[in-house]
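User: structure tokens for this one?
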Amino acid sequence: MSQSDVTTLNQKFAIPGQLEFTEDVGGLIIARIANKQAQSTIALQGAHVMTFEPVGEKPVIWLSPAAKLVLGKSIRGGVPICWPWFGAHATDSTFPAHGFARTVPWQVVASEALSDGSTRVTFELPQSSIPAAQWPHACRVRNIVTIGKEMTVELVTENTGQAMFEISEALHTYFVISDVDKIRITGLEGCTYLDKVGDWQRRTQDGAITIAAEVDRLYVNTDSDCLIDDNGHKRCIRIAKRGSLSTVVWNPWVEKAAKMGDFGSDTGYRGMVCVESANAAENVVKVAAGATHSLHVTYSIENI
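Assistant:
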């Protein structure tokens, strides 16, 4: 994209006092929202929410200080969109992990100042950004982001073709926490999960989740709200979802974070945790011809 693209975006979609578009030094186009309720930045590459900070609150969404904001590269932190598959591709290991949607350009197709003071931006995945060899299906994909006291992200997949297709997906959301030692995650008690760290063994969650080592778990058959109870920040982050039957909890811990190289300091992993609203494993989604599937998540703060 170029400065002319930024100018056109501002002419068509900017909202005075709420929404403007700028170009980052790495060439990424960024939607910047600052209304009376919250601030947020969203990269058009991947329709990727990078930050969300309600007024008077600490940031909710974690973006690594070492994140590489580079065209064609995934961004460490924020809300990456994993679509149309989650994890490794089922049949072709040469295809990118978590799909292609998070590293390709999306288009802004609508913006709106809502009556409650929040700001909504709708992104669409253009046909030119969909590699036909990886995804030969006719579809329309949108990401609808609403920023206010709460943040809502809605990933909508519409099958515009003549045959059913199958997707797995996730909103791979990174959250700001005070320290991994001071949080617990509730809402998944008694749920079955696949333990990636434990050779994908199937286990049952006993009580709240606490983190004291690498955690990478895919919880299945659950549509429950999750809460990150953060005693250090004296708050809960509520993750309320619809159209999702899987939840992923991830923290890379020491060695894996160091190998990734874009977590910032040696202790960067301690200030984040991922709680991802997903459809994966036995919860993959079949989207019939002419049908639409919506993965809808609301993120909010509750004091404790």
